[in-house]
Amino acid sequence: MEAAKQQTQTHFVLVHSACHGAWCWCKLKPLLESHGHKVTAFDLSASDINMKKIEELHTLYDYTEPLMEVRESLPPGEKVVLIGHSLGGLNLAFAMDKFPKKISDIVFLTAFMPDTVHKPSFVIENVQII
Length: 130
Known about the structure:
This protein is of the alpha/beta class. The protein has a single domain, classed as 3-Layer(aba) Sandwich (Rossmann fold). The chain has helices spanning 2-8, 28-34, 60-72, 88-98, 122-125; strands spanning 11-15, 38-41, 80-85, 103-109. The protein has a 4-stranded parallel β-sheet with strand order 2-1-3-4, sandwiched between helices. The longest helix has 13 residues, at 60-72. The protein is globular and about 45 Å long. The mean pLDDT is 87.
């Protein structure tokens, strides 16, 4: 029975948005776990209980560092499903670039989805108000 459970278990890594923390997944995390999945939710740098100070963050990569630490801690061969909300989509892009073989699927939940052609501010600069 335990072997069958491990075969269907998916590891979800939940990435919050700006001005949030791991707490924002308080309803989704137990729901996924109740279906036998492994779920990791954590605070990005200078968010909620993460003790890093905002003044110490100089780049978006600095903000993303806790996600990179989660990815580096995975055993060889383990792949995860990354779910990012809003600004968390940019954190997913960093993880995809650095650890493409450790990701099975990615979910951009109403999130920024960067591309490789335009600069990050492209959408904001090209919004047309009707």
